[in-house]
């Protein structure tokens, strides 16, 4: 806009007085033109970007096969992928950045697609392609149950993979035909649970973790003061992985017409190290065929060579018949560790904001919480519990559907619901509290760091003293009391929600982890079931005749996905971040022990 003022700059001294009004007019004119251009460009750019980032609707054609690729990482709720994501992944010149090459698949999309495939005559069957989907047992069962329900339509399911991991095989064992590559095998060998212990590492660097906890079974902090499992943790871990293994064996036995004893014997042979022919002879697979030759087999099942394949993301964009009902059932996904703030997992203040938004919607008549969390911040858990009680006070029934985990803080936010569903292999309970305070006195001495200061009161320097010198007996007693108060509050919330005495909750608490099946027996879960069962119960409690579903939180926009792709955090850095969760400052946590089940 410089030219708008240029004439005024060239005005003679004599005409300066006359020029001043023109300068004002020129400035105003320039601003008007600037804003006009700005709004026009914004409108054009918004139209272009809106068209670019809009999700195109997919038209379902006759003779379609749902190609359910079992690869990537399973999450509760699918997120729309930025158009740039696929481009960046396919560019060989672009180095790997963070987790951009790890695909996430939404359980919600998979279950919705299987229902669509069952009911739409244009879909002939399902091809389970591959067996590399990272998922925990509870959500694996949800997919397996959906596939069993799909078969009620009389349609077929065929599976193929280079090799099968155990949890993936548990899912695909329902298939009418299981195909295995000639070079592959079924990795059927039983389950193991492993934990990492950091005590000796921290000793070497001069850090001692000061532990405060309530609960014999609260083993989440054991990696910071032990080098192996405690007897209590070994017992509870063996019980729940044994329960998961029993579920795997009984389900596969029913589908493959094998006995549980035969499956145990095959596991002892470690079938993943046997040949494809051995796996065929054992009855784990039906056909040995190269994965690249699946087209010929698909033609046979489809009854035509002119079939169409639709993957999960594409099929999810096929238009569904939308309910015209006014009443809504809100479904709120709560997945990940619980934090007071931040951008990952279940962030207390964000969840409260979402619940308030749901509460203000007069059309929402019931709320279903899909909880998949090992716990986290005790304070954030209490805040979420409070928000749930407030929405219940508005006569909105709340039903919980537990996923892979709903333990410790995950159970804290669930216990106040009107009704709780869990999968048989859900890990729940872990009702306990702990606190951690690092003591870096030895590290400080190693590096030559001296600390000195003044204070006005006895405990004014409590946090600094605990961190740099280590807790004295009085400080330890103060901190332990804080943790015990947290446990009292936690068990009180559970007792209120489950309508039992607090003493009973304490008797089954102590930080012990339970499977969903046992959770029903001891009363911390009402019934075994999936998210559809939870929705049906919410509809029943609300007395609805017709309804539509509203999902929260809303899916991230593509721009957020682009920022996510730029995350360059390495696995080593993520491990350090986990350690910092315990070491950064004194805190009270409701978190179940981290364990790797294979």
Describe this structure in words.
The chain is of the alpha/beta class. Among the domains are: 64-189 and 270-315, 2-enoyl-CoA Hydratase, Chain A, domain 1 (Alpha-Beta Complex), CATH 3.90.226; 328-554 and 582-597, 2-enoyl-CoA Hydratase, Chain A, domain 1, CATH 3.90.226.10. It is 45% helix and 20% strand. The strands form five sheets. Strands 10, 13, 15, 16, 17, 19, 20 and 21 form an eight-stranded mixed sheet that branches. The longest helix is centred in the N-terminal third of the chain and has 38 residues, at 16-53. The chain is globular.
Give a topology summary.
Elements: H1 3-9, H2 16-53, E1 64-75, H3 83-90, E2 104-106, H4 107-119, E3 123-134, H5 137-150, E4 156-161, H6 166-172, E5 177-180, E6 193-194, H7 199-205, E7 208-214, H8 231-256, H9 260-268, H10 276-281, E8 287-288, H11 294-302, E9 308-311, H12 312-315, E10 328-335, E11 338-339, E12 346-347, H13 348-360, E13 364-373, E14 375-377, H14 378-393, E15 398-407, H15 409-412, E16 419-422, E17 427-429, E18 433-439, H16 441-447, H17 462-468, H18 473-498, H19 502-508, E19 513-515, H20 516-522, E20 527-528, H21 531-542, E21 548-552, H22 558-565, H23 571-583, E22 587-591, E23 596-597
Parallel strand pairs: 1-2, 1-3, 1-9, 3-4, 4-5, 5-8, 10-13, 10-21, 11-12, 13-15, 15-16, 15-17, 16-20
Antiparallel strand pairs: 6-23, 7-18, 14-22, 17-19, 18-22
């Amino acid at each position: 806009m410089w030219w708008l003022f240029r004439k005024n700059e060239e005005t003679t001294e004599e005409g300066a007085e006359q020029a001043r009004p023109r300068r004002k007019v020129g400035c105003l004119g320039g601003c008007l033109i600037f804003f006009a251009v700005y709004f026009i460009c914004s409108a054009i750019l918004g139209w272009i970007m809106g068209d670019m980032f809009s999700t195109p609707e997919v038209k379902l054609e006759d003779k379609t096969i749902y190609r359910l690729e079992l690869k990537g990482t399973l999450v509760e709720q699918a997120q729309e992928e930025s158009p740039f994501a696929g481009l960046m992944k396919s560019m060989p010149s672009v180095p790997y950045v963070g987790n951009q090459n790890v695909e996430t698949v939404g359980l919600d999309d998979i279950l919705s697609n299987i229902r669509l495939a069952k009911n739409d005559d244009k879909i002939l069957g399902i091809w389970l392609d591959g067996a590399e989907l990272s998922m925990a047992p509870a959500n694996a069962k949800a997919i397996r149950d959906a596939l069993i329900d799909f078969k009620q339509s009389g349609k077929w399911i065929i599976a193929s993979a280079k090799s099968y991991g155990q949890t993936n095989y548990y899912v695909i064992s329902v298939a009418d035909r299981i195909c295995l590559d000639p070079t592959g095998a079924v990795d059927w060998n039983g389950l193991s649970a492993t934990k990492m212990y950091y005590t000796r590492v921290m000793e070497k660097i001069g850090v001692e973790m000061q532990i405060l906890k309530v609960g014999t079974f609260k083993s989440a902090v054991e990696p910071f003061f032990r080098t192996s499992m405690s007897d209590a943790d070994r017992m509870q871990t063996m019980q729940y992985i044994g329960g998961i293994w029993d579920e795997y064996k009984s389900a596969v036995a029913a589908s493959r017409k094998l006995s549980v004893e035969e499956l145990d014997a095959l596991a002892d042979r470690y079938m993943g190290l046997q040949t494809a022919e051995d796996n065929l002879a054992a009855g784990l697979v039906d056909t040995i065929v190269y994965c690249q030759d699946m087209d010929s087999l698909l033609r046979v099942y489809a009854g035509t060579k002119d079939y169409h394949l639709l993957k999960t993301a594409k099929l999810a964009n096929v238009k569904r018949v939308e309910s015209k009902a006014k009443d809504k059932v809100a479904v709120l996904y709560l997945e990940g560790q619980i934090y007071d703030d931040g951008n990952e997992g279940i962030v207390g203040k964000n969840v409260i904001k979402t619940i308030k938004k749901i509460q203000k919607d007069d059309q929402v008549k019931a709320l279903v919480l899909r909880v998949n969390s090992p716990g986290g911040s005790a304070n954030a858990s209490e805040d979420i519990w409070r928000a749930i009680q407030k929405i219940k006070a508005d006569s909105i029934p709340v039903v919980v559907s537990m996923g892979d985990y709903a333990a410790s803080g995950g159970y804290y936010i669930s216990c106040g619901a009107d009704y709780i569903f869990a999968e048989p292999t859900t890990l729940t309970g872990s009702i306990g509290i702990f606190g951690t305070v690092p003591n870096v006195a030895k590290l400080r001495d190693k590096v030559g760091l001296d600390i000195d200061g003044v204070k006005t009161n006895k405990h004014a320097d409590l946090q600094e003293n605990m961190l740099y010198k280590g807790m004295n007996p009085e400080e330890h007693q103060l901190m332990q009391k804080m943790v015990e108060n947290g446990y009292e509050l936690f068990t009180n919330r559970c007792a209120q929600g489950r309508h039992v005495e607090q003493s009973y909750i304490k008797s089954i608490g102590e930080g012990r982890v339970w499977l969903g099946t046992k959770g029903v027996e001891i009363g911390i879960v009402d019934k075994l079931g999936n998210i559809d069962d939870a929705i049906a119960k919410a509809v029943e409690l609300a007395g609805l005749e017709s309804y539509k579903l509203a999902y929260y939180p809303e899916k991230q926009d593509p721009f957020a996905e682009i920022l996510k792709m730029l995350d360059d955090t390495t696995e080593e850095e993520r491990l350090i971040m986990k350690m910092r969760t315990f070491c950064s400052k004194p805190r009270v946590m409701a978190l179940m022990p981290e364990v790797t089940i294979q």
